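Technical annex B. To support the medicinal chemistry partners, we prepared a structural model of the target in complex with S-adenosylmethionine, based solely on the information shown next.
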Amino acid sequence: MKKNFFTNSMNLAKEICKIKLSRGDIVVDATAGNGNDTVFLAELVGEDGKVYSFDVQKSALEKTKEKLKEKNMKHFVQLILDGHENLDKYVKEDIQLIMFNLGYLPNGARNITTKGETTVIAVKKALQILKENGIVILVIYHGHEEGKEEKILLKEFTSSLNQKQYNVINLSFTNQINNPPELICIEKRL
Ligand SMILES: C[S@@+](CC[C@H](N)C(=O)[O-])C[C@H]1O[C@@H](n2cnc3c(N)ncnc32)[C@H](O)[C@@H]1O
C-alpha cells in the first residue's frame, strides 16, 4: 500500500531506525514512556541484540515491561529506573542507535518532562559510545515551556558539533500548525 513519507517527526524517526538497524545491534531507548518505542526497537534488533530502556517513572517502566512480556521480549531488554543523563553508569557497550522521544507522557503528569540541560548531558554521553555510522535521534516537542528551552539548547549543542566527525540534520514541518515536533539526527561519520 502506498503511503506518505514526510508525515511527522516520529514516523520519520521510525523509518530511519528501520534503515539504520540490523538484528543483533545494541540500542538505547532514552525515554521508555509507555514502551511503544522500546518494543519497536526490540523488534528491529531481535533477541541477538540488546535494548537499554530508561525512564524516571516507575509506572512507565511497568507499562513497558507488560508490553515486552506480551511479546516475549523481556530477556533482551534492560529496563532502567534512572535519568538518561546517567546512561554511562549502565551502558558499557558501544551502541548503534539511541532514541530520545522527548517531553512528557501524553496522558501522564506534565511536570515529569525531559529537560534541556539533562538531555544535552545524555546526548554528550551517548556520542562517547556511539559506533561509527551510528545515530542519535531526537524528537523534540517544543509546544510547552520546558520543550521550547530544550529545543534551543539541543539546537545550540548539535549545530556546534564538528562536521568532520558528525552529520547533523534538523527537520521541521514548516507548514503545519500547533508547533509540530522537530527532528534532529546526529550520525557519526565513518
Ligand atoms: C514522550 S514520553 C516517551 C514516549 C515513549 N517513548 C513511548 O513509546 O510511549 C517521555 C518520557 O520521558 C521520561 N523522562 C523524563 N525525564 C527523563 C530523564 N531524565 N531520563 C529518562 N526519561 C525521562 C518521562 O517520564 C516520559 O515517560
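Notes passed to the chemistry partners:
DSSP finds five helices and seven strands in the chain.
The longest helix spans residues 145-159.
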